[in-house]
Amino acid sequence: MFVVFDIDGVIRDVSGSYRRALADTVEHFTAGAYRPSQADIDALKSEGIWNNDWEASQELVYRYFEGKLVSNGKAIAPSTVLGREEVNLNYEELVAFFQSRYRGPDPTHWTGYICQEPLLIQATYLESLTKAGIRWGFFSGATTGSARYILEKRIGLQSPVLVAMEDAPGKPDPTGLFKAVALLNGVDSLVPVIYVGDTVADMYVVENARQIQGDRRWIGVGVLPPHVQAKEEQRETYAANLHKAGAVIVLKSVEELTPAVIYHLGQEK
After folding, report:
1. Intervals of the chain under pLDDT 70
2. Which of 124, 130, 181, 220 could form a disulfide with 186 if both were Cys (CB 3.0 to 4.6 A apart)?
3. pTM of this prediction?
4. How far apart are alpha carbons 92 and 16 in whole angstroms?
């Protein structure tokens, strides 16, 4: 069996880091007029095409100036509605601002929100997969630097299989998943692949993989990110969206995906 993990919301809690940087960025580029809530960000990501948080930030800024936002049932709009071509928004400046919050102002010595991310997985869990004969790796929309920081510096892994933002097109394109499987020496198409993610886009990756490489079984497993777990209604709504997008099961924690569960999923038809 092969298991490929997303990172954000699965391996680390990004509600106070990536998502906080996203909200900071939107607030900054709307001159303090609009700061998206977690629910606003979830609503955007449920569309399945906004896995990249830089692009998600840009999209929310555009929607604000277009007067196309609703938060907590209330319409949010500027005093003057503008078209996208009228919004003076420089993408490179937006990315730089985002990174200054997420990584910190010094690109070499990181002091930003990334340093405060709670881990959702322990190295011992991954060791248990290895002992069970399960090959594992990572496919994430995070930058290589950010992904390796959490996998190698925080968790202590040694050069794990990783396909990051710089290595493949953004999700829901499955190219990155194919690359991760290839790096795991997954040449035998009879061996199923499980992809574990926390967003609709992650589940769409699995569906798109099936369309392109239909000779292999591709299995989508959803994980509820920490920020939706406080309230039952939020959990149920989020899980329903993941199921609708193709998740065969939705777990509260990635470590619930034990070797026994993995092999059971691999045997199901």
Report:
1. 269
2. 181
3. 0.89
4. 23
